[in-house]
């Protein structure tokens, strides 16, 4: 596969899969560019995370209890929130989350070493969200599909390739490569500039995070689809163009029917 020299993204020659059973309803196509978030949108990051964390802690002789997970989860979410706001770097998130977690448990560890171990475990595992493969296969024949993700390039690419979703996407935009993260305007500016024939009115951002995917899409003037899989109440001022609870509901939004 051919990779883009400027590494946008990881632009490739797209091997179109066989068309599925889903077809367009004539005259119903509004969107052409579908910008998918990755973690907890197409890939079940939450499930993979727990398995990888349990293995990491056990390999280091520490029982991975619910208390330990809750401490890690709070620290990790705080750091990622700072990253989304642009107040801390991605490296700071990655290299301090374990040292901070263990410090709260009365232990001192090398956070960078722990992160490397965790990253290796995370990159070897994946689980797809229900219906993700079928959806991407069905849509790829009629739409242009892209990934927009905050994360580590090596890990995200590894997981995409293991799931066999990789060939469905025309380009893959990863925050570590771009130097900015969702919801920053600079992230979406970069995507627009490096996406051939980009038109905001024909694009749709699809993701599970109000604070990064939906907010970022809104700020960029792009319609958004929030995947609210857990049916949580949105008490924020961030509103999406569409809200769905499962990926299959995208077919209706996109004007896709069946034979």
TrEMBL record:
Lineage: superkingdom: Bacteria
Comp. bias regions, Basic and acidic residues: 1-22
Residues that span the membrane, as ranges: none
MF-aspect GO terms: 5'-nucleotidase activity
Disordered: region residues: 1-23
Residues in coiled coil: none
Name assigned to this protein: 2-haloacid dehalogenase
Listed NCBIfam families: HAD-SF-IA-v1, YjjG_YfnB
